[in-house]
Every structure is written in C-alpha cells, then in structure tokens.
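Example 3.2
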Amino acid sequence: MRAALALICLLFAQITAAQPVEVDVKIVISVDASGSVDPSEFRLQIDGITNALRTPAVQRAVRAGPRGRVLAAVLIWSDAAYPKYPTAWFELGPDGTFEAFATEIEKFKISAPGVPAIGGGGTNIGDGLVYAINMLKENPVPASRLVIDVSGDGPESRPWVKGAVELPQARALAIAKGITVNGLAIETDIAGLHLWYEANLITGTGSFVEKAVDFQDYRRAILKKLLRELSGQPFTRNGPLRGQQMGQQIGDGRAHQEPAKG
C-alpha cells in the first residue's frame, strides 16, 4: 500500500514539474529594419532596448509582478520578401537574466560593409505582426497577458510579395487571440505617425502608443514603454504606473549592470 502511494506521489510530482509555470507577461518586442532604417538608426533601436533591460526600474517592475517572471523575445522584421530574425525566448526576473537577454540582442546588426544583410524593403507591419503572433502561440508557457510591442518609422506599405498578410488581417488575428498590440511611432520622417498607429495598429486591453520624435529619442521612449508593458500589474488604458510615479521609476534613464553573482 505504501509502495503504491509513493508511486502515485512520484507520478504526480513528475506531472506537476512538467507543466510550464505561468508568467505575468509574454511579450515580443518587434523592431523595424525596413529599407527606410539605416544602420545607425537600427543600432539606436537595439541600444535603446538593451539600455532599458539594464535599467533597475524595469527590473524592479518585472520582479514586482504577482509571479515576478516575464518571458520576452525580440523580432527583427521588414518586408515579407525578407527573412525575419527572432531571438530565443528569455525568462526575465532571476539574477542575470536581463543581462543575458541584452547581450543576445546586441548581436543583431543591420546591413553594412562586410556584414550579412538584415532587413530592407518595405514596411510590411502586418507580416511582421503575424510572425510575432505565431511566436506567442508556439510558446507553451501560459501568461496572464500576451503583448506585441511594434516600433517603426512609417505606416504600412504595400508588401513586395503577392499574397503577404497585411495589417488589417493581422490585427484581426491578434484580436481573435486576445493579444494586446502596442506601438512606438518614430516620427523622424512622418509627424503625427502616432495617430496612424492609434487608428490602425494597436488593439487589446490597455493598448497604447508611445511616440519618439526621432531615432535619438527612441532610447527614452522604449524605456518608458517597456516599464509599462513588463509590469505584472493590472493593465489598463492608463497603464500600471502614472504621472509622477512613472517619472520617479524611470529616473534618468541610465542603465546599470546587475550585481555580480557570487
């Protein structure tokens, strides 16, 4: 009898251990690498994301969530005629995880002399959005909130590939899957782009658009945006942090390394 009971307990423990542990947020950070983005502008986006991940306020926001864990990946997109470049999924929360994710993201380089090309072509937001939706769908870890963070410097252009998914269809799919889509409009060339994002891109509970006046302003904007998105707090139109409180959390926006383990 005792042996049977022990076997049942062992099987239950194995089943429980095999089940993925739920996280507060599962997010794809989607980065524009279309033909309108030059290597220096692409690098400003990469540096902005890695700076945010190394900022203590972002790390505190993740750890303050109900479970203190977030799953995140970056996706580099451009036109449907060009490949997509996703990272692996990274769990954020435990010591060293933010630095590991930032280090992986820093490996991306856009086309330049002697460097294999990443990106180019038109701004096919819909095709990139569907790819990000599939990334979320294929990851089995359950999450309280599913988010896609789309940054770009223009509205959607006509895809170079016939039959490629365009934004209205991709947005409808995100709605059907219960995914929140947020936007970061980089207004270097198109003033008021954030209004187009609000009308045509974002969807879901608490969805919002952050605006960067140019690529140099991306660093500030993505820090503010990720602080809001990565928080495990209830997600509303006003976000988990407001006004002066958010400003205090962000501080001066400078990144700090996580303390060394040991």
